[in-house]
Design a protein that fits this description.
- By secondary structure, the chain is of the alpha+beta class.
- It is built from 2 helices and 7 strands.
- It has helices at about 40-45, 90-100, and strands spanning about 25-30, 50-55, 60, 70, 80, 105-110, 120-125.
- The protein is globular and about 45 Å long.
Length: about 140
């Protein structure tokens, strides 16, 4: 049996490996259309022309490119990921909106799977409910 090969990936040389965004255990293509951040972002943008249709038929802001979702290994919570090539001020306004509605948002380069060095990973997950003690 032949050893598995790794695809070459060097965008400067025009070598583009297949996107691994949603391949592997606990990784799924797209976001949920009726839960997660998608309904909030849809409501926030209304009929804005700066939206893109998702693979699953929803509408998301332009920065929501290469969307997928992961299951958090610790608690099984969904982590929603977008991997845009760039972020503008409207994306940061969306991040504030998400935060105001109980979501965490983290932007990181090192977790980008789509085209590392060309995209950033925007990770979005629901904040845990505050614990109240009953004394």
């Amino acid at each position: 049996m032949a050893a598995p090969t790794v695809q070459e990936h060097d965008p400067e040389l025009g070598l583009i490996a297949s996107c691994p965004c949603h391949t592997g255990a606990a990784s799924y293509r797209g976001w949920h259309a009726t839960k997660g951040p998608e309904p909030l972002l849809h409501a926030h943008h209304g009929t804005s022309p700066r939206r893109r249709e998702t693979d699953l038929g929803g509408l998301l802001p332009d920065w929501c490119d290469h969307c997928y979702r992961l299951r958090d290994a610790d608690g099984g919570q969904w982590v929603y990921v977008a991997e845009p090539y760039q972020l503008d001020s409207s994306a940061f306004e969306d991040f504030l909106c998400l935060r105001e509605h109980g979501w965490n948002v983290q932007v990181t380069a090192w977790q980008a799977r789509h085209k590392p060095g060309h995209t950033v990973a925007v990770l979005i997950w629901k904040k845990p409910e505050p614990h109240t003690s009953r004394a």
